[in-house]
Amino acid sequence: MLINSKSLKNFSLIISILFVLYLIYLIYTSFFVIKTRFTDIGSSTYVNQVRVDDYTKKLSDFLTQTCKQDSICEVQKMLDFVTNIPYKINPSTAKNPKTVVEQNFGDCDDKSNLLISLLKQKGYEAYFVLVPEHIFVIIDLKNNLNKNALYVNSKRFYILESTAKGSSIGFPLKYKLDEIEAVIDPFINKKLKISSLDYR
Fold first, then answer.
1. How confident is the model at residue 1 (pLDDT cuts 50, 70, 90)?
2. Is 40 helix (H, G, I), strand (E, B) or coil?
3. Which strand (E) or helix (H) includes residue 161?
4. Which residues pair with 197 in a beta bridge?
5. Cβ(197)–Cβ(180) under 8 Å?
6. pLDDT tens per residue, range 61-91
7. Which of 191, 104, 199 is CA-nearest to residue 159?
8. Under 8 Å between Cβ of 115 and 162
9. Is 178 buried (19+), middle (13-18) or exposed (0-12) by CB count in 10 A?
């Protein structure tokens, strides 16, 4: 039986319009997620889960509250917190910082996402370094720690290894320079253009 009702037709039209708008919204947000989270590194794609949000702000402030704006103290406190989270392989894409803390485990992707998010909240210049089957963080510190550092375009960066429990700022580079696949700023989702790379 056909229903001939103007109000029912109008209702159907409204539902159809809402569905189309929702579909457009899903397409737009999917594009935004791909643009801000996926980085092409040649033969593969890296997916980041960095966050600058209220949660990471409160956590970074809490961890560094006794440091009195001493950058070495701040970075080491945040690094200690992350390295004390148990290492466990995550077979899916990287987890966001809050999930890593709540689940109390993560692999190099997960823990590096947490670490770099905390560093960003405190205003540090830090990047991801991708090497075969691993990722670590590098940070620009004004202090000279008398340790070897990775020089990217002649600028000194100290290595932070999120998976080595109790590690300190200036962790030794365990890879050859030509194994470095990319240096990424995950907050703008772009690879750095590298004209020179050295470790000394």
1. very low
2. strand
3. none
4. 152
5. yes
6. 999 999 998 999 999 999 999 999 999 998 8
7. 199
8. yes
9. exposed
Rounded to an integer, what distance in angstroms lies between the CA atom of residue 81 and that of residue 180?
26
How many angstroms separate the CA atoms of 63 and 81, rounded? 8
Helices (H), the chain: 6-37, 54-63, 71-83, 97-103, 108-121
Phi, psi of 99, deg, nearest 5: -65, -40
Report phi then psi at 151, rounded to 5.
-100, 115
Q: If DSSP codes are grouped into helix, strand and coil, which group holds residue 86?
A: coil
Nearest to 51, CA basis, from 108, 115, 104 = 115
Which three-class secondary structure state does DSSP give residue 66? coil
Assess contact for 48 and 185: CB atoms under 8 A. no
Cβ-contact 157, 151 below 8 angstroms: yes
Using CA atoms, how far apart are residues 135 and 94, in angstroms rounded to an integer? 11
Smallest Cα–Cα separation from 51: which of 125, 112, 141? Answer: 112
Q: Which residues contact 22 (CB under 8 A, 6 or more apart)?
A: none
The pLDDT tens digits for 152-193 are 999 999 999 999 999 999 999 999 999 999 999 999 888 999
* SS3 state of residue 115: helix
Q: Which residue has the higher pLDDT, 140 or 143?
A: 140
